[in-house]
Specification:
Keywords: Signal. This protein is of the alpha+beta class. It is built from eleven helices and 22 strands.
């Protein structure tokens, strides 16, 4: 069942074409337009596809792949070239995935590689052999580790202009501290000093120091640090928010998707949908596999079908999409959500990796196959809204029937580029520039609401949230 659109289709199409900016034609390469069909690097986890065997170096990203019949060896390449140790297993979700798919380009000297189906297009060029000096046994002394760390940031970090100071000043902090005889803990502190004041929640240093797992991450906004230091911490706050929301929705409340989605009726004419995370709706642990992707999307679509069918049956006049506590996640979900609120396809945002030399890639928002709502939508955001939550908000803002209310979003859009240092520590950094279709970049700035509402006031961050929701209900009803 497809919910009846609130506007006739020709008017919807006209409104979107008039209000959604079209990216300017770029003279830079757009290889995705001429790439061949998507194929698996290792079909059925067997031998690697003969067409893709060999050595491949990325444009941007600092990756080198050596693909043999038996599988793929991934190297980090910059000033040095090495296959980092991975004996301790994955240290983050981005560290857990590898390039599973490719699309060959004409001539077969270049190809697009992807971590997941439909994921970021990373162009690799074929090399005749491994570059001289590439090693699977890299030096891991303090100098080698620090040099690799600094090289990664200098080559790939995209936002020093928005998060000063720049690389040179930050590198001086590290250079002043590095000594051949320094301890593991001292080396960690030196690298961590580089990231001090870098208000980017997508940029991290993760590793084990003297048997203790450590993590450096900045840019958490104001609300989360405040709640984490409050009595009961973040958990008590979230539990309070969930209990209050379920109570406010009454008999219409549905708390589902492994606690990641709540939906119901905020009142008799206003639907309510809160999404806490763009993924994690199933208990599967095979992150990044086709089976995982299919299960996640199937469960997400099942929940959305149920919610939007109920909204249609109740003949709601508006929907509140609450992303005020959305912590991000999978971009495919972030693009599928706006598809529930449109009957025509449009460009939601673009991406371009630093150093890739490629044109910005337009991410299309396709109308969902299941029930949709095409009346007024109010997207509630806060400084907790980050990453995939911000991508969904940015895409929704291109829809003229959507109004953003609440607070400015976090301002961290880039998919983290995960890279291993020679000693096995993990660096994640922001190398991709996400922009609105007109080219506007909201990294660090965040996406400001059209109507300001305090969502998590310091004096009452639980009840303040539901008061904000009720303010939006009043807006939707025009009262």
């Amino acid at each position: 069942m497809i919910a009846a659109p609130r506007l006739a289709l020709p008017l919807v199409a006209l409104a979107l074409s008039a209000c959604v900016a079209t990216p300017a034609t770029s003279s830079l390469p757009q290889p995705w337009l001429e790439a061949g069909p998507l194929r698996e690097v290792q079909p059925d986890a067997g031998p690697a596809d003969p067409a893709v065997r060999g050595v491949w170096q990325s444009r941007g990203y600092g990756r080198l792949l050596h693909i043999e019949e038996s599988g793929v060896t991934r190297f980090e390449i910059g000033d040095s070239c090495y296959a980092p140790p991975r004996g301790d297993g994955a240290q983050s979700e981005m560290d857990a995935v590898s390039y599973r798919f490719f699309r060959m380009l004409p001539g077969e000297d270049s190809a697009i590689f992807q971590l997941l189906r439909g994921d970021t297009n990373v162009v690799f060029d074929r090399l005749e052999a491994l570059p001289e000096g590439c090693t699977e046994s890299p030096a891991d002394d303090p100098r080698a580790v620090a040099d690799a760390f600094l090289d990664m940031f200098e080559r790939h970090y995209a936002f020093f202009d928005r998060r000063p100071p720049g690389h040179a000043e930050r590198a001086q902090r590290v250079e002043a501290a590095v000594r051949p005889d320094m301890s593991e803990a001292e080396l960690w502190d030196a690298l961590a000093s580089y990231m001090e004041g870098l208000s980017d929640s997508h940029t991290k240093l993760i590793g084990e120091v003297d048997g203790e797992r450590r993590r450096v991450q900045d840019g958490q906004g104001e609300t989360l640090p405040r709640m984490r230091s409050a009595e009961g911490g973040e958990t008590a706050w979230l539990v309070g928010l969930i209990e209050q929301t379920v109570a406010g929705l009454g008999d219409s409340a549905h708390h589902t998707g492994r606690d990641r989605i709540i939906w119901g009726l905020a009142d008799e004419s206003v639907g309510y949908l809160q999404v806490f995370q763009m993924g994690g709706f199933t208990d599967r642990e095979d992150f990044g596999s086709d089976a995982w992707a299919e299960a996640e999307m199937a469960e997400f679509n099942r929940i959305m079908d149920e919610a939007f069918t109920a909204f249609a049956e109740e003949d709601v006049e508006a929907v509140i999409l609450d992303l005020s506590n959305n912590r991000g996640g999978w971009d495919r979900v972030a693009k599928a959500l706006p598809g529930r609120f449109t009957d025509v396809a449009y460009t939601g945002f673009t991406t371009q990796a630093r150093g890739s030399g490629l044109a910005p890639f337009p991410h299309r928002i396709e109308p969902a196959q299941g029930p949709r709502f095409t009346g007024p939508v109010y997207v509630l955001t806060s400084d907790v809204t980050v990453s995939g939550g911000e991508l969904a908000t940015l895409a929704l803002r291109q829809n003229p029937r959507v109004t953003q209310v609440g607070q400015v979003t976090r301002g961290a859009y880039s998919t983290p580029l995960a890279k291993r240092l020679p000693n096995g520590w993990l660096v994640e950094l922001s190398n991709e520039v996400f922009a609105a279709p007109d080219g506007t970049v909201y990294e660090e700035l965040g996406l400001a609401p059209e109507i300001a509402i305090d969502v998590y006031p310091a004096e009452d961050p639980v009840r303040g949230h539901w008061r904000a929701v009720m303010q939006v209900v009043a807006l939707a009803r025009g009262t």
